[in-house]
Amino acid sequence: xxxxxxxxxxxxxxxxxxxxxxxxxxxxxxxxxxxxxxxxxxxxxxxxxxxxxxxxxxxxxxxxxxxxxxxxxxxxxxxxxxxxxxxxxxxxxxxxxxxxxxxxxxxxxxxxxxxxxxxxxxxxxxxxxxxxxxxxxxxxxxxxxxxxxxxxxxxxxxxxxxxxxxxxxxxxxxxxxxxxxxxxx
Length: 185
What we know:
Elements: E1 2-6, E2 10-18, E3 22-27, H1 40-57, E4 71-77, E5 88-94, E6 98-99, H2 105-117, E7 127-131, E8 137-148, E9 151-160
């Protein structure tokens, strides 16, 4: 429930969650958009604006490593965070305005943790998450409450389906002087 001033959109309320990386979460409706029917380019632009606004207005902390204390992106949702058998839809915009083809494993982990800590789901209640761009589905559930540093945390299980898209073969020639890599001095 962090109030952020987002250029072009005014004050919005975001949640910040960690599931392997930090994301800002908010319903697309707060930005005048619909995660299921708005143009992807409009969702990407709005999410990127939120990411930049959060970075400027809020300092993240990680209990073990400050190198991990950065906002990776913004996940716009359909706002359906309370437990339901029906899937909830989101789009994950991360890094340099990239869009995940899936609901995002680390994003689902963070979103489940937020829903659990807000009392919207209970341990072992499985939620289904749908990508607004591809329709792919993941499920997630909180399985155990715990602590991480001074923070309340939850262990989350995420499952989904993926397919191989290619393979690579690396060849090392014995006479290659850099076959084991190199270090800068």
